[in-house]
Amino acid sequence: KQAEKAVHQKKEQSKTKCRKARRRHINLVAEFNRRQRKNIWLETHIWHAKRFHMVKKWGYCLGNSPTEKSYRASYRAMTKHCLLQDLSYYCCLELTGKENELLKQLARICSIDTGLTFQEAARLSGRFEGSLNLYRADRYPEDMLGPVTFIWKPRDGSEHRQLWIWVHPALKQDILRELKAIFQCSEPEEICVTEPVTISLQEENQMEVVMSPGKKRKKEDKEGEKAVPVKKIIGDGTRNPFQSYSWISQTTGIAISDRSMEILRFRLIGPLSHSVLTETLKAAAVQTV
Question: Which residues belong to any copy of the Pop1 N-terminal domain (predicted)?
Fold first, then answer.
């Protein structure tokens, strides 16, 4: 009787889903969206979470230190091969408008005494990335805001230019506030609001999962099993998802947009970095009409 009971229990336990089946994509995406309500994940979060001790800083969930002894491997990659770092938590501010107006106002928050500025020819052409320290308008050498890096979009024959400024998330709000002040930018009429990570009550009712041993998990919605939750892009962790992320000046026509987590940033270190890029990125054929 005991043997028959054990065999019967074993057959019943075999009907339960294994861990791989329980972690199907249909439920993982909804769970990932829920877990990002307070701290935003980078695109490489899953990879880092399996190999690093994660910390919560500046509204993001970042890898702090590896779980294994990988310092020698990292050093070897930096000196002989290629090492990739995810810097997507850096915030990107996009400035669009006339080149003369951009340079005129940007000159107020930097100084040639600290090095090359936005007006340097090689940087202005868009061929190279520049770096400098920003200050409050007309306050140099006092009231320093912090270091930034920038790159211009190459000229296309028009007087309108695009400038991307990369700032640390801890400095973003101060620098953004100063840029909006010198360019006299205010919120546009149509406020662009990013879709929040929180799930509404209606979506939660649609995404209720029926759990029963030995049966396939289903979602109670109109499409049934075909419905798959979609990943929601919510911007970055340095602003409220219900706030606007685009501002424009009615007098100068300069537009400022917050492109954080929309333009990803990676750093390649090592002698084979250029080879990795050339093998990864393929140049498109330019067709002239």
Answer: 4-97
